[in-house]
Specification:
By secondary structure, this protein is mostly helical. It is built from three helices and no strands. It has helices at residues 36-66, 73-101, 109-122. Helix 1 packs antiparallel against helix 2 (73-101) and helix 2 runs antiparallel to helix 3 (109-122).
């Protein structure tokens, strides 16, 4: 039985049989959701967001550490947000970015759990959920 989150789509096994058929001894490999061009565009957007997130947040942390007059409680709160966003940019986006480069989710259940956990831990608890098709 296939339990993917795609509407109308069916999973495929290694031998090409649909999910409704008998399961072979191999593992399940769901069909891609988007076209290869869409995956390339998603990878470009995610890569750009990751670069902007890493660069911008590193700049905030550098400025905070360089200028002592910025060490106020309000700025410390902003540094905390910046650090959380930096960690999301480094650890949360990389799994999805790599999956977009490979035209679908390529990690196992542990990678899927880490993807959701890192988003929750580092700041995006409401919008970053494990939505891997294979699990």
């Amino acid at each position: 039985m296939y339990s993917g989150n795609r509407s109308g789509g069916q999973g495929f096994w290694e031998d090409g049989a649909g999910a409704e058929g008998a399961a072979p001894a191999g593992t399940r490999s769901p069909a891609p959701i988007f076209s290869p061009t869409a995956y390339e565009r998603l990878a470009l957007v995610l890569g750009g967001l990751a670069l902007l997130g890493v660069g911008g947040n590193l700049l905030v942390l550098l400025l905070y550490s360089k200028f002592p007059r910025l060490r106020t409680p309000t700025h410390l709160f902003l540094v905390n947000l910046s650090l959380g966003d930096l960690l999301v940019s480094l650890f949360g986006v990389t799994f999805t970015f790599a999956s977009c480069l490979r035209n679908g989710w390529v990690w196992d259940a542990v990678g899927c759990a880490w993807d959701g956990f890192s988003g929750s831990l580092f700041e995006e608890s409401s919008s970053h959920k494990c939505t891997c098709d294979a699990w």
